[in-house]
Structures are given as C-alpha cells and as structure tokens.
From TrEMBL:
Residues 1-28 form the signal peptide. It comes from Peteryoungia algae. The keyword Flavoprotein does not apply. Residues 36-285 form the ABC-type glycine betaine transport system substrate-binding domain. The keyword Nucleotide-binding does not apply. It comes from the Bacteria. Coiled coil: none annotated. This is Choline ABC transporter substrate-binding protein.
Length: 317
C-alpha cells in the first residue's frame, strides 16, 4: 500500500512536470535569440506587402519583427553575414544572379515557394507594342524613339537589364539603364504614356501596374528572365542555420503562402490608398481572415500559446 502510494505520487509528479514543461519545452526549442526577427525587402510593393503580412503576424505572436529596406545584393550579403534572418522575396529566375553564389555555398537557404504565377521581364505601353516593339530584338530598331534608355528600379536590382545591354546579339550598345525606384519608374511610365512617347521598363506581376497601364510584355528575354515572359516563382529564404535555430518562426514561414490576386489587392492598398505595409496587411487579413487558419497551423506564440487564437484576438477577429 505504501509502495503503491509512492508510485502514484511519482506518476502524479511526472504528469505535473510534463504539463508545466510544455510551454518551456517550446521555449527551449526556440531560444530567446529568436524573439527578434530581422527581415528585409528591396522597396518593391509586392514584397513590402508580403513582408508587412509577415511582420504583422510575428508581432501578434509576440516577436520583435524588424524590417530593413535594402538593395537585393545587400540583402544577400547581410544574410550571409548573419545581419538578417528572413527574406520573403526571392524571385526565381530573375534573382538567380544575386542568389546563386549564396545558395551554392549554403549561406542562404530556401524555405518554401510562397507565390506561383508571377512574371518578370521588359514591358512597353500597348501603343509601343502595336508600333512594332514586340521582342527584345526590336528595341534597337527604335533606339532614337526610346532615347536609348531602359527604365529600371532601385540601383542593385537591375542586373538582368544590364546583362541585356551587354549582349551583342541585341545591339543595345550605347543604351543605358535609368535607375531610380519602383515609384520613380512608374512615374516615368505614366509621363511617357500621357504623351504617347516610347518607353521600355521593368514590368512584373503581381502588381497594380498591370491594371493601371495598358501594357504588353516583350518576348525574346528568355536568356535573361527565363521562358514565358519571365514566368517566375517567389520563395522565402533564411540565413544558414535559421531553420534549426528558430523552428516556430520557420513553421510560420513554411505556411505563409500567397496568390497573385491577393497580392494585387494588397499592393493596391499601398499604392492607391497610401497605407503603410503593416496597415495594408491588417486590412487584407481582416477582409480574408480564413487565411489565418493555414498560415498559423502548428504555429505557437513566442511563449508557447496557440498562435491562431492569439492572432485572432490581437487583431479583433
């Protein structure tokens, strides 16, 4: 009887220890160093929006999420140097020039594809297309009308345009890439469109530009952007070792997937409504709260509580 009681007491003690250890086990699997999550994006509205989604969810889960605005080349170097943790915007194949060395050496790792159905290549207004500019090879025929200029985005993000200029087959010797920003480039497209002037620029989808402008994508860029007008996927990447160090954040990143329609709408909140990325994210989540179930499946708060419940409560859903 005394022995039985002792055994019962031991079982009870172990059960109690198991219950109290639950949250602490989650914390032990993900150390305090994981509470700060360092993200970056290059100033593109699609990536500003998706990064805003990630930031919003992480903050509601109890993490200190921070985002930096950096050129693509700096983003990769920063992940290699352990100065950044997460990048939600690897466009494949458009960014392969930047990413390949880091992926090959293992300093950057891909978590998952977060968007399919994207595209990324040269574009022109439809009136330019109808005038005979339908392929990369057509550009040099109209050099004077284009003023021998290609309009790109941020410095450090236009390598594929620069590669096209260096290709003797395209005859673009003497042309230059005008680098500014996404907004600067789009302002130039709008200005040229008003006067029906020729312009060739960096186009992509998802992006509201596809609805805002009557535009066409050029063929002939497979060598630089890949086939089917630069058909692309977008992936989430992390620095080396992050998946093992921070499994709960990694689970969220594995779940965090989007679609073109959702991103087009969210980017509109940034560009048309003037919302900041996290405000746009909250609006998008509030309008489609069912997405949270997939995004937060198996994800906990930083202190080990159910993630879905915490985010719903925090956002008032």
């Amino acid at each position: 009887m005394k022995k039985s009681a002792s055994k019962s007491a031991l079982v009870a003690s172990l059960a109690a220890l198991s219950v109290t250890a639950g949250p602490h086990s989650a914390r032990a699997a993900e150390p305090a160093t994981c509470q700060t999550v360092r993200l970056a994006e290059p100033g593109w509205n699609d990536l500003a929006f998706t990064t805003g989604i990630g930031m919003t969810l992480l903050k509601q889960l109890g993490y200190d999420a921070q985002s930096s605005l950096l050129g693509i080349d700096v983003i990769y170097l920063s992940m290699k140097n352990n100065d950044l943790d997460v990048f939600l915007g690897y466009w494949d194949p458009a960014m392969i020039t930047y990413a390949k060395p880091y992926l090959e050496e293992g300093s950057v790792e891909t978590v998952t594809v977060n968007l399919q159905g994207a595209k990324y290549t040269f574009a022109v207004p439809s009136y330019v297309y109808e005038a005979g500019v339908r392929d990369f090879a057509d550009l040099q025929k109209f050099a004077d009308r284009f003023e021998s200029k290609l309009y790109g985005i941020e410095p450090g993000s236009n390598q594929l345009m620069l590669d096209a200029l260096d290709d003797p087959a395209l005859g673009l010797n003497g042309w230059k890439v005008v680098e500014s920003s996404e907004q600067g480039m789009l302002a130039e497209v709008q200005r040229h469109e008003r006067g029906k002037d020729f312009i060739v620029f960096q186009g992509w989808a998802p992006h509201p530009m596809n609805a805002r402008f009557d535009m066409k994508y050029l063929s002939g860029g497979d060598k630089f952007y890949g086939p089917n007008f630069g058909a692309a996927t977008v992936s989430t990447q992390v620095r080396k070792g992050y998946k093992q160090e921070c499994p709960n954040v990694t689970k969220l990143l594995e779940n965090l997937k989007f679609d073109v329609e959702f991103e087009n709408k969210g980017m509109g909140y940034l560009m048309d409504d003037g919302l900041e990325p996290e405000a746009a994210a909250v609006k998008a989540i509030t309008e489609e709260p069912a997405r949270l179930e997939n995004w937060l499946a198996g994800v906990a708060t930083f202190d080990g509580k159910p993630g879905l419940e915490a985010v719903r409560q925090g956002l008032g859903l």
